[in-house]
Amino acid sequence: MLRKTAQLFAVLVLLTPVIVYAQHDRKAAPRLTNAQKIALATSAGPSEIAKNATIIDMTDMSKPNQLRAGTNGWVCHAMINQPMCLDKEWQKWAQAWMSKSELKIEGTGIAYMLAGDKGASNTDPYATEPTADNQWVVSPPHIMVIYQDPKMLDAYPTDPKSGGPWVMWKGTPYAHVMVPVSLTKAATMSSK
Ligand SMILES: [Cu+2]
């Protein structure tokens, strides 16, 4: 018994640095040069759009910082694990989402996340990690769509594993259609 306890203790001691490191890794943004941040941001969009887009450093979400002015109306965000390129309507969306404020969509909006993301809750716009019931989903490269009329979202399921487009954050002001542009897990599985 004592021996078992000692073994368990040893395992815990050995694992502690790993656990602490993993948490640190999740919270702290890696230090990137401006060139790396621009590369991160532009990885989200088609090069024809990204090369002329405004680039905003969002690696620290509390301190957005413009790294480059664009000429085509698009904005690419350098965000750790979730870079995105946004059109005019999506820029309003991002502003509202980050400030948790009202959103008035005035036309169809398109956003690119061609680098995919490292995970988000499908139900809670502000979740930062998986819980038992927040439908955590890691998305492959995708396009995101918003509509002026939220009823348009009803055409799609909310299940990320449906094998096609689905609605994320349904019932919130930030609901949008996720459109995978590479094989999803469901599609891969059903083809085998
Ligand atoms: Cu997305």
Features of the shown structure:
globular, 10 strands, alpha+beta, two-stranded antiparallel ribbon, 5 helices, 3 domains, disordered C terminus, eight-stranded mixed beta sheet, 192 residues, binds copper (II) ion
3D architecture notes:
The chain has 192 residues and is of the alpha+beta class. It folds into three domains: 1-30; 34-83, no CATH class; 87-192, no CATH class. The protein is 30% helix and 19% strand. The chain has five helices and ten strands; from the N terminus they run H-H-H-E-E-E-E-H-E-E-E-E-E-E-H. It has helices at 2-27, 34-42, 47-50, 88-99, 185-190, and strands at residues 54-57, 65-68, 75-78, 84-86, 109-113, 120-121, 136-137, 142-146, 166-168, 176-180. The strands form two sheets. Strands 2-1-3-4-5-8-10-9 form an eight-stranded mixed β-sheet. The protein has a two-stranded antiparallel sheet with strand order 6-7. The site of copper (II) ion (CU) has 6 residues, from strand 8. Residues 113, 117, 139, 142, 144, 178 line the site of copper (II) ion.
Structural class given helices, strands, pairing?
alpha+beta
Radius of gyration: 19 Å
Mean pLDDT: 87
Largest sheet: 8 strands, mixed
Order of helices and strands: HHHEEEEHEEEEEEH
Shape descriptor reads globular
In terms of topology, how is this protein built?
Layout lengths: L1 H26 L6 H9 L4 H4 L3 E4 L7 E4 L6 E4 L5 E3 L1 H12 L9 E5 L6 E2 L14 E2 L4 E5 L19 E3 L7 E5 L4 H6 L2
This protein binds copper (II) ion (CU).
The site of copper (II) ion has 6 residues, from β8.
